[in-house]
Amino acid sequence: MNAFRNNEFHEVTKADVLGHWSLFFFYPADFTFVCPTELEDLARNYARFKEIGCEVYSVSCGTHFVHKAWHDANEKIAKIQYPMLADPAALLAKDLDTYNEVDGMAERGDFIVSPEGKVVAYEAISSNVGRNAEELLRRVRASQFVHEHGDQACPANWTPGEDTIEPSLDLVGQL
């Protein structure tokens, strides 16, 4: 896919995604109202994602040229250092079932992908409700923990260092 990053155009391939954690962050369109607040929130937290070995990829059905124009025109978008992927044919949006054919845009969706390329968590929101980068960061950390400790589960609101749950058949009988 074509991408805009650090004032340059790049190509991002599947090989670029493998070997590290990834967050694919779909948003409806450039030059909109809620989207820049979400993307700016991700930009503020981008270093924290990188610290835990996770690359952030924002994705819309616009072109990389539109991403650059938006970057040049909007102070919130100018803060972005992560790749902004262009999906004008909606191939990735359709593949991950976030494409809204009526509107011709992707819905708000985020996908956490393991280093092996497996989607381990996802969320889709088909409304004008913005997402929270802190919560996405928490979900990536929890996904990483469970990936590393397959015999553990993370309870609601879990953050690193807190107790986890060790599922057992004994607990099932108590339900």
From TrEMBL:
Classification via CDD domains: PRX_Typ2cys (cd03015)
Segments forming domain Thioredoxin: 1-145
Disulfide bond found in the keyword field: no
GO molecular function: thioredoxin peroxidase activity
E.C. designation(s): 1.11.1.15
Active-site residues per Swiss-Prot or TrEMBL entry: 35
GO CC, any one term: cytosol
Pfam family, any one: 1-cysPrx_C
GO biological process: cell redox homeostasis; cellular response to stress; hydrogen peroxide catabolic process; response to oxidative stress
Name of protein: Peroxiredoxin
Provenance organism: Bifidobacterium merycicum
